[in-house]
Predict the structure.
Amino acid sequence: MRGGFLDIAREHWARYPLMEPQDFAKLACQSTFGPAHMVRSPDKVLAALLAERKETGAEPLPPESVGNGLCRFHITQALSTLSELPLIGRMFIRTAALAEGTEAGLARKLEELAALPVPGLGEYLESWRREGCPPVHHSDAFRAAYNPHYRILRREFAGFLPALVPIDRLTREHYAAWLRLPRQEDRRPGERPGAYLRRHGIRPCLAAVDGRCGSGKTGFSGVVEQLIPGSKHIAHMDDLYLPWEKRSPDWMEIPAGNMDLERLQREILRPVLSGEPLTYPPFLPGGPVLNEYGEPIETDPEDVELILVEGTYSQHPSLAKYYDYKLFLTCEKEEQTRRLQVREGDYYPTFDRVWRALEEAYFAACGTETAADLVVDTTGFFD
């Protein structure tokens, strides 16, 4: 849904024809300010979700955009109590924390709403504005007809929920295994902490997010950092380019021929399996030929519960065996083009001709999309 707020209001009216003036006012408030509820402790947020779930229908319902990067995410019995509701609670709390609406923004939306031919809408909005736009609830007619049970979430949070659930499960399992560890006296003399954990079958979860440029891979890694509890390390494929002088003459004909996949295995993936610290210097594409790397990035497997490798080529067949979970992001080509034009600016024609083409050749040659554990289309994630 890429129209303005008036288009969003029209779509809601078409979906819910019994909307009354106060329901339109509520929609404008939610679009502007996000969650109107007082966000209490995480435990109370989860308890409210658990109780509300019992009152809902069984069929899953898609998120509904309210504009401003937000959506109504419907709570239904199709949601798993253990896997999804705690995540939704964290999404709700985080959405409230990120809300940055203004009174001026709300005023603009109300002006747009006044154009709708809804009986009594103009008069209601004018009276409501004179009162200072106090909190408003759904009308009795709306509640009786549609039994609304939802939370206002950021659109990308809601869209990424299926992708986040497996990562959340893996990190919870890691933490549970850590709690069951024997006492420290079991550690061998001179044994590194990471090796001690690995000897007991405990290591960080290894996940990778691959996919088309512009589909939201970097954004997804940021969502993981916000919503998945515990310590995490995000490794970016942009830090693992192969220096120009080390590339094969025909590197453009080789899937991932521009990436140092051997270094990714040697400096990140294999150390995780052995419980050794990770140390890898990031590649600097604009650096001098003889000094292509920055200060080393370091982390210890003992200190993190999740390592997420983010970026195109992260699920090359030579790497796939290392991962516990592989996510592939995609989007419709028209939407991808729009996003890349915004992101790349004047460089877009070159980016499209060279880098998007190389990426698509890699996907076709390696079957990356079909080999992933989950594919998520992000076309409608961002207003």
Q: What stands out?
A: The chain has a mean pLDDT of 92. Residues 161-179 form the longest helix (19 residues). The radius of gyration is 24 Å.
